[in-house]
Amino acid sequence: MTAHPTKADALSIAQSAKLKPISEVAAMMGLNSDEIELYGSSKAKIKLGVLDRLATQSDAKYVVVTAITPTPLGEGKTTTSIGLAQGMHHIGRNAIVALRQPSLGPVFGIKGGGSGGGRSQVVPMEEINLHLTGDIHAVTTAHDLLSAFMDAHIFHGNELGIDTTRIELRHVIDMLDRSLRHIMQGLGDPESNGQPRESGFDISVASEVMAILALCKSLRDLRERLGKIIVAYNHQGEPVTSEQLRAAGAMTVLLREAIKPNLMQTLEGTPALVHCGPFANIAHGNSSILADYIGIKSTEFLITEAGFGADMGFEKFCDIKCRVSGLKPDAAVIVATVRALKMHSGRYKVVAGKPLDPGLTREDLGSLEEGIPNLIAHIEIVRRMGLPAVVAINAFPTDTEAEWRLIERAALEAGAVSAVPATHFANGGAGAADLAHAVVTATSTPANFEFLYPLDKSLKEKIDTIATQCYGASGVEYTQVAEAKIESYTEMGYGNLPICMAKSHLSLSHDPKLKGRPTGFTLPVRDVRLSAGAGFVYPLCGNMLTMPGLPSDPAGAHMDIDENGQVVGLY
Fold first, then answer.
1. How many helices (H) and strands (E) does the chain have?
2. pLDDT grade for 105, boundaries at 50, 70 and 90
3. Model pLDDT for residues 214-231, shown as the tens digit of each residue
4. Which of 271, 350, 416, 421 has its CA 20 to 30 A from that of 256?
5. Distance between CA atoms of 185 and 197, rounded to whole angstroms?
């Protein structure tokens, strides 16, 4: 394997890349020059009108990349997605990769998605990691416009009778500014500044507007979904929506350009669709349906990524995104690393910003074998959805052949089609050629894709199904607040919505300290929230501790903190 590039190498690699004109990349997808809008020479937006022309084209194989339960460092889903798309071209197949756009917050680039790394990146790196084409700014503006409409409505007489103690909508900004997490607004002259009340700022990718943009199927669908956002409740306990505030039309205008998917390229000139960036916790953590609609008609293999592990973004990809889109995946790739599986033995800790324990970088078949049940659990989740599973072993220079063979043997015994070491970080597409062959084989026979639960089950039945069949819980325990919210949402007509579980991504359970494959635990649901416009209910699981100064609203950034006060996860 070529020497593993460092972070400094990755930047140098990205900045020295020889890019194709983006019009040439569009032509590789079969797009006409009048179907794209250029943003300089390295990126473009794709007009939605292309969907009408592409409607008669056959669908590509649809491959979703997920992972085992990661360490706080991440295990390389984005890099593997990009490397796999490049690897397809190395074996003579056409592919497109579809990714989320990274966010500036909560800490630069920490949100899922991103530009990849090493020799498997989307470029220009500076563009994808900063403003790109302004989509996140548009989401921020549309969200805060709605907030301004609400405050103006209250100031000018409150005709809708909004209960100012039951306002659901906060403000958003695309960075984690501690001073804005929890604020008092409306201070000063009430004649000019309105009624003082507590509020705060969340990061833009946590906005329901972002989730809506990622799930809409057309401009009309976007408009309808924006109108369903519940901003508050009135004094009778009835929801007040953005439609009632007459804000949804103006919000749609602000998002008129953002709805168009962005086209970029990888280091090797493979087309990359980078569009939307919903959180993979309180939202579904997947790139846009519209990008997938275009990509699946423009290539042989469409590679997309789902945030966090198979218990999180992959389950939501299936039960939320695919329900809305109507698209059916053909296979799933599960990214695993030797170091993460060793960590799941419980013998080692991985802390972001600190050197790795030396035990993680030397051959240790005993701890690896003890951590492999976590991989097996994720394979079983994928198989439960009726999809063939390919395990991609994201290779590091400290791995050994014996460790790879142990993972491969366990994966095959658990029902995976194959388990393949991949060196795409160091070697680009050539390092993912074997993985590409494995994915082609996995998609050669029809999948038996199915959802985990039917929508006509009750909200509690759907939550219980995810908890027991995905996480391995023995049952679910609800607080009185959660019970009351579930009853209220059901009475309001939202009982048939899918579930978007918000829990720690650092464990199959709700508790980040429970590594490997925990069993026999009870999943605590402490609260339940509603995203009526996006179209899902999100339970808040476990004892997620907010960062200092952040109120309990889950749309901000959160820490998982261990018994010693050490931050072990940020989301």
1. 20, 25
2. low
3. 999 999 999 999 999 999
4. 271
5. 6
User: Which stretch of DSSP H or E encloses residue 537?
Assistant: strand 536-541
User: How many C-beta neighbours within 10 Å does residue 559 have?
Assistant: 18
DSSP H/E element including 99? strand 95-99
Decide the pairing of beta strands 558-561 and 116-117.
unpaired
- What's the pLDDT score for residue 565? 34
pLDDT band per the 50, 70, 90 thresholds, residue 7: low
pLDDT band at residue 1, thresholds of 50, 70 and 90? low
Closest by CA position to 136, among listed 214, 40, 31, 64: 214
Q: Is 23 left (phi over 0), alpha (psi -120 to 50) or beta?
A: alpha
Q: What does the pLDDT read at residue 436? A: 98
Instruction: Please list, in sequence order, all residues whose beta carbon lies within 8 angstroms of the beta carbon of residue 138, skipping any fewer than 6 positions away.
Output: 254, 255, 257, 258
Contact (Cβ atoms closer than 8 angstroms) between residue 393 and residue 422 = yes
CA–CA separation, 438 and 412 (whole Å) = 13
Look at residue 114 and tell me whether its pLDDT is greater than 80.
no
Quick one: pLDDT band at residue 106, thresholds 50, 70, 90? very low
| C-alpha distances out from residue 191 to 184, 194, 195, 198, 546, Å | 17, 6, 9, 18, 34
> Which segments of 55-134 does DSSP mark as H helices, in order?
77-90, 125-129
SS3 540: strand
Distance CA 289, CA 261 (A): 9
